[in-house]
Design a protein that fits this description.
The protein is mainly alpha-helical and 322 residues long. The protein has three domains: 36-100, Electron transport complex subunit B, putative Fe-S cluster (3-methyladenine DNA Glycosylase II, Chain A, domain 3, Orthogonal Bundle), CATH 1.10.15; 101-196, Alpha-Beta Plaits (2-Layer Sandwich), CATH 3.30.70.20; 198-267, Alpha-Beta Plaits (2-Layer Sandwich), CATH 3.30.70.20. 42% of the residues lie in helices and 8% in strands. It has eleven helices and six strands. The strands form three sheets. A two-stranded antiparallel ribbon has the order 1-4. It has a two-stranded antiparallel sheet with strand order 2-3.
């Protein structure tokens, strides 16, 4: 009797499992979501940081956009050229022809400990976000300056930014343009710039000229020299600060003309070419040459005339002795 119950129970459980299995099998085929094989391959090629620097919600969103043609093969800034080449091979396109200029993070502040004046000594929590809420928002006189307490350093996963002499500095070779430091900066003085760009307005100070000079030795004083001398209309003073636009050719004239050095990449001054002698200088030189020659000739003749009488006086003495 007990054995019969066991057999019946096992049969019922087995039948239930079989029915449920068949139901799930049919449902999986009926309601399955088609997965694009190309999208899956692209997703496998992405680094998987899910940082959002590409502008899509994680690597899955980026892979879908690339697979559907909504984004270029080099959309992932973290992967860089190697990942772009792999995805290009998957998509059957040329990565070189679809590669945009690399961008890196840049800190728009040069107010280190030797250039910016210090207003007070902060002794609170060593974090820029905490320092930003105190009066003036910074230890330095400039309220727009880099705090220098490394919130960006903590946010960077690639060891691409460090505090050097009180100011954050980005290592262009390590930066992958993930944007973590930009989000972490409470002063909003970090943004993306082209990797190859040499001349950049490295100041975010919107104070007036005298106030800027009192706070920092390299702050933009809005003098307009860069704007007046730019031949491409690529830089303008807006709200007390020089701002570059997309017309910039990176010629460096603005950096050369900036009187305070607020624009980085100042070109070295070339040594002046030797001045050619003017016609007025040639004439005296030409006239002096014959005069010198005549003087030398007169000196020789004078010596010769002084020697001649002495020789004539000795001749009779010699004759008498003979």
């Amino acid at each position: 009797m007990i054995v019969t119950f066991i057999i019946v129970a096992a049969g019922l459980v087995g039948a239930t499992g079989l029915i449920l299995g068949l139901f799930l099998g049919v449902a999986s085929e009926k309601f399955k979501v088609e997965v694009d094989e190309t999208e899956a391959k692209v997703r496998a090629a992405l680094p998987g940081n899910n940082c959002g620097a590409c502008g899509f919600p994680g690597c899955d969103g980026c892979a879908k956009a690339i697979a559907t043609g909504a984004a270029p093969v080099n959309q992932c800034p973290v992967g860089g050229a190697p990942v772009a080449a792999k995805i290009a091979a998957i998509m059957g396109t040329d990565a070189a022809g679809d590669t945009a200029d690399k961008k890196v993070a840049y800190v728009r502040c040069q107010g280190d400990c030797s250039k910016a004046k210090q207003a007070f000594h902060y002794t609170g929590i060593a974090d820029c976000s905490d320092l930003a809420v105190v009066p003036n928002g910074s230890e330095k006189e400039c309220p727009y300056s880099c705090c220098g307490y490394g919130s960006c350093v903590k946010a960077c996963k690639f060891d691409a930014i460090h505090i050097v002499n009180g100011v954050a500095k980005v290592d262009k070779e390590k930066c992958v343009a993930c944007g973590a430091c930009i989000k972490a900066c409470p002063k909003h003085i970090i943004d993306f710039v082209p990797y190859k760009k040499k001349h950049i307005v490295s100041c975010q100070n919107h104070l007036k000229g005298k106030a800027v000079k009192d706070a920092c030795a390299v702050g933009c004083i809005a003098c307009g020299m860069c704007e007046k001398n730019c031949p491409f209309d690529a830089i303008h003073v807006i709200d007390g600060l020089a701002v570059m636009n997309d017309k910039c050719k990176d010629c460096g004239i603005c950096a050369q003309k900036c009187p305070v050095g607020a624009i980085t990449g100042k070109r070295p001054v070339k040594p002046a070419a030797p001045k050619a002698p003017v016609d007025g200088a040639k004439a005296p030189a030409a006239a002096a040459a014959p005069a010198t020659a005549d003087k030398a000739k007169a000196t020789v003749e004078a010596k010769a005339s002084a020697t001649a009488p002495a020789e004539k006086a000795e001749q009779p003495k010699d004759t008498a002795n003979a």
